[in-house]
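Dear support,

Our group has been running a series of protein-ligand predictions, and this particular one with magnesium ion is the one our PI (initials K.S.) wants archived with full inputs and outputs. We had some confusion internally about which version of the output was final, so please treat the block below as the authoritative record. The input we submitted was:
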Amino acid sequence: MNRTQPTWHADESLLTAYLDGRTSAAVSASVEQHLVRCGQCRSGVRQLSDPVPFQGIWDSIVTDISAPAPTRLEVFLRHLGLADRDVVLVRSTPAVQGAWVLGILLCLLFATIAAASGAAYGSLLFLWTAPLVPVLAVAMSFGPHADPSWELAVASPSSPVRLILLRSGAVIATAVPLSALAGAVLPGSPWASIAWLMPSLAGVALTLALATWWPVTHAGAGVALAWTAVSGATAADGYRSSVGSATVELLSADVLPVYLVIAVVAGAVFAVRSDRLSHFGEFS
Amino acid sequence: MSTISSTSVMFTGVTRRYGNSTALDHVDLSLQPGVTGLLGPNGAGKTTLLRLLGTVLAPTEGRCRILGLDPGSHEDRTEIRRSLGYLPQEAGYPRGFTAFQFVDYVAALKEWTDRSQRHAEVRRVLALVGMEELAGTKMRRLSGGQRRRVALAQAFLGSPELLVLDEPTNGLDPEQRASLRGVLSDLARRATVLLATHQTEDVAALCERVVVLDSGRVRYDGPVRELVAQAAGRVWLADEESPSALSSWRVGTGRYRHVAHEAPLGAELAEPTLEDAYLLLRGGQADDAVAGMTA
Ligand SMILES: Nc1ncnc2c1ncn2[C@@H]1O[C@H](COP(=O)(O)OP(=O)(O)O)[C@@H](O)[C@H]1O
Ligand SMILES: [Mg+2]
Ligand SMILES: [Zn+2]
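Confirmed final output from the archive:
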């Protein structure tokens, strides 16, 4: 349709030299660039060359020129041993782009400000935000509200569950190290900078399970509100007795198994009900 | 003419409701290879019907068979999706993607695992819609028509047996429409194509058969030329406006074209077009909608 007209054409002697491999690398490259654009010279080449091998050469030229160079993220994911197709799927995660990165930076900023403003207050703020980061990121990584091409994903033979788990995995893999880094900046027990992983895990599993009933954005918001209520109430209790004990209470050895149970039950619910995610309209 | 075995889609009594409103009302539809147009005004239920065909929506009532399979079963649905090319009404793209990356992503969703084969296929479909030279351009920097063509390209991946296209010509200029016709008639030699549109020109240009949908019901289903023939003797040219006509409008020559059951004063018969036939068909059921269209 909208072809830009080349301003020059390769003559027969140049094309013959190119086909015989007698042109320099620079000349070959510019002939190839031209052939990609110019149907006239392409048919010239076709006439000059044995048609069968030419098609193969042509295909490889076109593939090389058109395939975009892999991004650093893609190279990294391939190093981790992810299959090429999964790398392409992960790259489409809406939350891995833009808004999500901003969210992580904000979280880090929060934690740093909090750390500077005093230990007890700082750990509380951190405890409240850190588990929310993966939850909100997962909520922003699939579904009609977050992914403008979600309807296409649903209409494809790939299981939406696979896509969701790949994307959630990508999100968690980005969120956890960064939040852990932020946690390490904070004064106080090093235990707290690891233990918050339990409520995040429960929150993510709960969000996925609830997404089989409601849009995932609503599910994520609900879980975030619930967590805010729980940590707020515990903090209020903590202030009445001794400031800072809220952190200890929410992450105490008695409470951690509760998160684990929530995560396991929610994971099972998601597994059983995940078929519902293979429709689009019900969740739009 | 067509045998049972060549029927690729069979909908019987299909109803779809959204809460209390009924978007599709007991629709019967069977499709065979070839290009079928789904014509109807906005809100007629076209997108809903196409979403059912695209297996992304389930019917409230009725029986659906697609490519001999049941979209209600998980395994069959996956199997249908392997043979389906689907262009949603609003086909968004992941943020920051180029045309190539977007089509490559859909190809990955469609289980093209081998990287170089997948890339060759992406090139092929981008070339089909004339977008190979803009393959490296970010989607957001393309024009509306160019984006529509890239979205169309993904539907052609793997030359699917069933093509479901929702308003594929949105944003395309006449030349691009003509080239789309070439691609579709090529594919339709073995594939079943259903394309939804609210424009009669699309159906006249692209389709052999037309299904007219209005308020969730099928108003006409048959060859395009038979629908046009229904308007024979009902289309008139005259120098004056006619208040009794179902619809009247001024044409380029300065005369008035009327679609009417009775001859307006001093009028002569004219050759009907699909648009006339469509107006006539809708005129019988929805006078206000027709009045809106002739304004
Ligand atoms: N997701 C939805 N929720 C509620 N109503 C809907 C939804 N999608 C479509 N409708 C309603 O169903 C009817 C048919 O819509 P649609 O299938 O989009 O028609 P068309 O594509 O012909 O314009 C309209 O009245 C529309 O408002
Ligand atoms: Mg529509
Ligand atoms: Zn040339």
